[in-house]
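Changelog excerpt

This revision adds worked examples to the README so contributors can see how folded entries look when concatenated. The first example is reproduced verbatim below.
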Amino acid sequence: MLEFVTEKISVWEKLKAETRPIYLYGMGDGAIRILAAMRNYGIQAAGIFASDEFVRGHDFAGFPVRKLSELEAELTDFVVVLAFAVCSPAMIDRIRALGQKYTLYVPDVPVVGGGLFTREYCDEHAEEIQAVYQSLADERSRRIYANIINFKISGDPAYLIDQVDTRDDIWNRVLCPTNHEIYVDLGAYNGDSIREMLDFTRGKYHRIVAVEPDRKNYKKLVKFVGDTPSVQCYQCAAWCVDTELPFASKAGRQSSVVTDGAATPARSVDNLLAGNPVTLLKMDVEGSEREALWGASRSIVRYSPKLMISLYHRNEDIFELPLLVRKINPRYKLYIRHLPYIPAWETNLYAVCDETGATVAGD
């Protein structure tokens, strides 16, 4: 079982065995989570640095933020731990170049929830991970899935650079949108995914339902939509039932359900649609994908919409969500694609049924 998982030693064990100084590259929530994990493993961070153009003499987490050029002038060798997300081609090239000069790790820490995706965690969930691997519809999905699992254990960014797709690949070869889509966008943010869908349908569609809980994001969404016909916007969270949830607004992509947030309306897709059809359903809801899936289960069974679901917010998402989709509707074919991103964000599940008209080209 899990013959495709070749990494045996976690990034944390590798860091603990290091004798060279370990420097975090970057600041923010990711750095805080990584530093906490390092403390739990008894790993000492030597400091924090940033790209020269971003250093302004400030501190972070008790460390003075240093320039990369200063470290390179001072040290002959050190270990780099990337602590922020990278998606632009220029920054990915910069990280790749840095990894050619120094030992570079990108520890995987969950966006939401606790725990770490170690080899031991992988072995604990080997049966579920194997079941997902075997259920994937094409060889490319299996390669990407194997790479993501191996990355999560090892922290080696090469696994993320090795197999990437473009949005054109995904829309044109996996989702194959028509001019008559009924698109439900959960986690609509400022309308970026709606804009993306419209680009591939040349502005043609039947109906759009957009759900966004964050107040500031919702204002941007409504402004983007304007008076576009047949678009309904809801300021609420996506959930399994209609209720209220404590919600932390961050005016960005990472607003999420928390224990001490402001009370926010939450709706299920099934209740929002009230029995009406959906042909394309996207879920990027910052760790609430499982609940959102259950809240859309009647629609998924009845209409078999094409699904786009984020798999990277919680440790368990990478195996739990694909299995849940198949449990709700066994007719789906499952595909996994990874857009250019370090760490393993923008790793998504795409589920299509033959009768939807979607076809996937080989490799």
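The second example, added in the same revision:
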Amino acid sequence: MEKLKFKKNSTIVDKIIDDITEDSNLKRFFMKHDITTETIENHLNDLITYQQEHPRCLECEGLDHCTQDTLGHQPVLNYLNDAIRLSYQPCNYLRHHERTQNVKNRINALYMPHMIYNAKLADFYMQSPERKALYKEIMAFMKKVKLGEPTKGFYLCGEYQIGKTYTLAAMANHLAELNKSVVIAYYPDLTREIKSSIRTGELENIISNLKNVDVLMLDDIGGESPSQWVRDEVLGPILQHRLLDQKITCFTSNVPLKELPKFMIENAQQAEKVKAYRIGERIKHLTDEYRMTETK
């Protein structure tokens, strides 16, 4: 805000000082620092600016309603070296927005619905003993992550429309709040993108990211069209790298883990079965399996 300018008319100055010192918020500031009338007079511009702008923040309902010249910044008075200083700092609404944005920035959602960013463990359905037990396991897992202790990921299996994807998304958001970078991807679409990346030259970058991200979450594994190349040249090396580096890896699937290899073979040859079995074994070592049931 442009500072006000006025001539040193003693009557006007006295009136302005009287008005300022009657302001309850400013009065507390003056008393706290034992500020003299002379100091007040020497800093009238800053004090008037503060008096005009501070009430806007008191009545504000959020960033969408902010009327300050600099969005989300509130005026603050400090007293240092016998001088009153006016500065601006982010308000609570802006800080919350920035924290939320930072969490979202730590999540790379590939081919997933936008709702994943709003999923919360606090909304996890716990009206059955199985759900309560799973929630307990998730929170124990989060505690280990927070403490920096090694821990397995989750293999969530069950029928359609029972909340597997939502649970994975809620976990992703909580992990991002713990400063973990997360990739959460709908696996059938990811495999199609991987195949296309050969032409674009992005294959190595994609594989490197999936290998090294703090937490990798693959939604609906087993729902993709079988591909020897994706299984052996992409998924296998990614899982092996993450297994050796003890990186958290999670999955959802419509099938139990022991049946998953059957959905990763293109033919009935024994070599195919062995390679698919190896994928299942890597996932078994990376995760603990939990079966999700109906919410009713």
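Reviewer comment on example two: The first helix runs from residue 10 to 22. DSSP finds eleven helices and eight strands in the chain.
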